[in-house]
Amino acid sequence: MTENGQLIYLYCVTDSELKVNQIECSENNLYSICHNGLYAVVGKVDQQEFGEEGLKRNMADMEWIKAKVSMHEKIIEQVMAGTDVIPFKFGTLFNTDASLKALLEQYGQEFKTILRKLAYKQEWGLKIYCNQQKLKANLGNDDSEILKIEDEIKSTSVGKSYFLKKKKDELIEKMLNEKINECGQESFELLEELSFDARINRLLPKEVTEREDDMVLNSAFLIDKDEVDDFKNMINTLKMRYEGKGFYIDCTGPWPPYNFCGLSSEKRHNE
Amino acid sequence: MNSVVAKSKEVTLLEILDRVLDKGVVISGDMVISVADVDLIYLGLKVLLSSVETVEKLRGSPFTSPVQEAR
Asked: Which residue in A has a C-alpha nearest to residue B25's C-alpha?
């Protein structure tokens, strides 16, 4: 079906017909492939660019990745504006329309089940960061145990104060971890209560986030559209509770439900 | 309340990569990019992010013209 040198790139699957020609897309011509009441939103991409050889080269090129990943997201968001979608991972490619139809045939029932689950819901993301210096500075001031050790340090011999200082550091470290866990856990649990489903994802290191503070929670929530206001209010409550104490609450959305469309045969993926 | 929403209008590339490369339905198409080395991409991203600011995103306004998206 494709002309020479082209591949079919799958963005998302939905169950309502849509006008793909109204979707803004910078380079590839989008179209939809319909099968058994499901619509796959796809675009033709260049074999040179997305074929095995080309990909190897391009995946080392951040400018290329940035452009393609942003386009992937932008296209799905535009589809999402009109209907519920199952977003696919970056770079799901097919050689022919027929092989994509075969996929819709094979997973059709499961896709429909997932779409029913996703109906009238939105994904929101919450990342919490902690500035440990700031949190530490807040800790010592009002903890009686720490104040007591500090007093002892002042009025003791050099040798003994060394051990007291060590003890104080350990105590602070322990309290720090407790505060971080408390903030992460409380935030997640309060938001989870308002959600249809929730996920905790792995933390991203500083080299990736390029932030001074540490990521202490990376989570995603699937929320009924009617609950979104309550969810945002809760985010505000958490901001008031924790920001200013060394935490930064970063909430984003609505996102395509990337975190909530795992196939039952792909459980591993949702881990 | 709006402060929460406003925040969501501007999303970093990191947020997009965290989802698009790492999540979403994984299925065996005829060919699927293996993004097993996502961490490597993230590290490459470090270089990129220092030169490129954030990707302006159009969010939460389904019926506004997509053209509004900042380029």
From this structure: A88
